[in-house]
Amino acid sequence: MHTAWKDYQKQNEQRFLDEMLELLRIPSVSAKSEHKDDMRKCAELVKQRLLDSGCDKAEVMETAGHPVVYGEKIVDASKPTVLVYGHYDVQPADPLELWHSGPFEPVIKEGKVYARGSADDKGQFYMHVKALETMVKTGDLDTNIKFLIEGEEEVGSPNLGSFVREHKDMLKADVILISDSSMISMENPSLDIGVRGLSYIQVEVTGANRDLHSGTYGGAVANPITLLCKMIADIHDENNHVTIPGFYDDVVEATKEERELMARAPFDEKEYKDELGIKEVWGEKGFTTNERTGIRPTVEANGIWGGYTGEGAKTVLPSKAYAKVSARLVPNQSSDKISKLLIDYFEQNAPEGVTVKAELHHGGEPYMTPIDSKGYRAAAKAIQTTFGKEPVPVRGGGSIPICSILEKELGTKIIFMGFGLDNDNLHSPNEKYNLENYYKGIETIPYFHKFFAVES
Amino acid sequence: MHTAWKDYQKQNEQRFLDEMLELLRIPSVSAKSEHKDDMRKCAELVKQRLLDSGCDKAEVMETAGHPVVYGEKIVDASKPTVLVYGHYDVQPADPLELWHSGPFEPVIKEGKVYARGSADDKGQFYMHVKALETMVKTGDLDTNIKFLIEGEEEVGSPNLGSFVREHKDMLKADVILISDSSMISMENPSLDIGVRGLSYIQVEVTGANRDLHSGTYGGAVANPITLLCKMIADIHDENNHVTIPGFYDDVVEATKEERELMARAPFDEKEYKDELGIKEVWGEKGFTTNERTGIRPTVEANGIWGGYTGEGAKTVLPSKAYAKVSARLVPNQSSDKISKLLIDYFEQNAPEGVTVKAELHHGGEPYMTPIDSKGYRAAAKAIQTTFGKEPVPVRGGGSIPICSILEKELGTKIIFMGFGLDNDNLHSPNEKYNLENYYKGIETIPYFHKFFAVES
């Protein structure tokens, strides 16, 4: 069987790439209303590709927001069913001026595809589509496969929860498989066993009712920039511990054993710093870099703006200043609760002279998966087969907001089999996905289905 | 003589206004290179107007930056000479979306001209041009008048110092008269006796060498927004006193007498707060609002930006964050010295994990003028004549960077006879200049010349 899959993939290598590039050319930015038509165009293309690749049926299904694409290949109702989740929407491409080539004009350079969405998540979910094609065309498929490819992951999946609730039967499966994360390296394959939760808010600070001359009024009227800065600065104490009361209350502390296991994962701090161009790492005192992104909740300012930001000088005391602030959450923290803490922190700490409004952008719960499930074992064996090395279980720093809802509604565990790398520039200019990883994913995924069918 | 001036002005009222509007229609924004041609167009129009209004000669003169317009009307070498300084450049109009009408499409509403530059300073320097016309056309001019109208005041007059040094003879005068400030109100006319100095810098904070995913890296790599906020927040202590070491070292404290005199100037805090839409005033503990803008040096953040500032959410840990920060200075502080303190404050306090670069935009020295000079007496008598009330001497909060250089190079005191109001929205959206103030200025200025000729 190995040979048939491999031969088929080799013969169709160029087309597998071309099809991914075509997806990448559609600017399906879910956060920006100007891309509404692109979102639908992308959904239609995904549907067509599911049909072309072997699905018995596929459709673009409406939600209150951007549509969901659903597809399925039912081999035999008695066989186990794998639900593949992915998303066809992408992050905004700004700041555009830092891209070396157009974010929606994919370029291949040194074995990497540069484009927004290449790794997150078009390139990754599409591996599953091409894996399906491989298994169908070689007549070697031992599971039923369902696809749930949504269009709102990057804005917190606000409508997917009710979609899933309304389509429980359709989505029923024995395991959920997601490729929307990364591994340590090709030499050190890993499987994520958790994702952090997310609370994302926007803050607006208002001083005077209009922009003022900083000479005439400077020093006598509160400056919203200064006071917003004060509020953001005060979020972390001198040990970079978050000061917001109650922030750590529900955190389940990692055990000594888990921390020891994490410490054994390969990590070269010098290489990490060199690759990022930083002199020092930064973070909460008492924790290692991997712990800071894996087992600790964090708060980051994702954006700030106010006053004059153009060329040259303008002596203005602005009326307003804004920030986007988000927290990453770890098991047992609740996104709703932390969002409320964040909003309260800003609104109730409004310094004298300004008013503060804070509002939720979106959130998502943290999620952990056990390493003794059938799905995890199948994934580990698949990786072992194609990488020749047992994968290390690690906790990922990112968030997939829908995980906890998927598990709750469908009663099924999630397996994270990500083939990206941390340096793929997700959410950043020059996002890329290595061709080697793309093809390795397509090669590995059929083994997951094979082993999962045996385990089940 | 009063009647002749008044009659002439009445007859030409509409034209005086139309000519001002024509000036306002040229977007002469000195800070933005895209307006280079507009700057020259504006200079040429000013020159033509000086000639049309009675100057014997006028020319557009080159500098290393935007040109200067010079004009003169020499009546008799034995008579005293008044040098009028003003500027034809304006502040950037951003944020454009807050303007009720186009910043360069002047609109008259309820007796006010709304346009960028209406009060600062096109509408104000042009009062002097129309005052010249009044005196020339009625044959009643007792002084020589020179005009120095520059194009770089809003960017700190970087080239005017050397221009003045190279043209000392041409600019020689017995007094320098400037209308580029405001009075308390039409009921409480005032004369500025000082302007604050300025130090304006831009700060760039860099963390990682590229934007990062805030999940993958958040909490483990320094966030330049957070650390910039910390540095800005730390500029003021809990009493809103500036903490930068050495900042207050050279400040000449106002005497008890001067503070008592200031306290007598009419000021209604409730009205001030209502007009600005704020619940509380803000500022350095131990000083009144007028003292905070008049006799105290201050530091303001004029702009801040970094990370994602668009619609919706983007979970990015940015590579860079920026701020524009300026200080207003009071007598005896040196702009060079304070600029260096500000730059050092940011560069030498760079927290671990980020690098900080700060650079000077521009600066200007504080300036004070005595109230017992011939010029001040002439201005006070002119105001008394047309307003029917003796003006109060006050210290203005704004800056005119060139003042100290003009005095030093030309050996002549400066008189500030501003006809604007604090609520003219200088440097802000919807800048306006009241028609009443414009005409009152044109009415008052000839008396200054008349009284100055008598005093001299």
Automatic annotation (TrEMBL), chains A, B:
Keywords tagged on the record: Hydrolase, Metal-binding, Protease
A molecular function (GO) term: peptidase activity
UniProt keyword Metal-binding present: yes
Name of the protein: Dipeptidase
Keyword Hydrolase attached: yes
Biological processes annotated in GO: proteolysis
Domain of life where this protein originates: Bacteria
Domain Peptidase M20 dimerisation: 200-353
Cross-referenced SUPFAM superfamilies: Bacterial exopeptidase dimerisation domain, Zn-dependent exopeptidases
InterPro entries: Bact_exopeptidase_dim_dom, Cyt/Met_Dipeptidase, Peptidase_M20, Peptidase_M20_dimer
Species the sequence originates in: Flavisolibacter ginsenosidimutans
Bilayer-crossing regions: none
Pfam families in UniProt: M20_dimer, Peptidase_M20
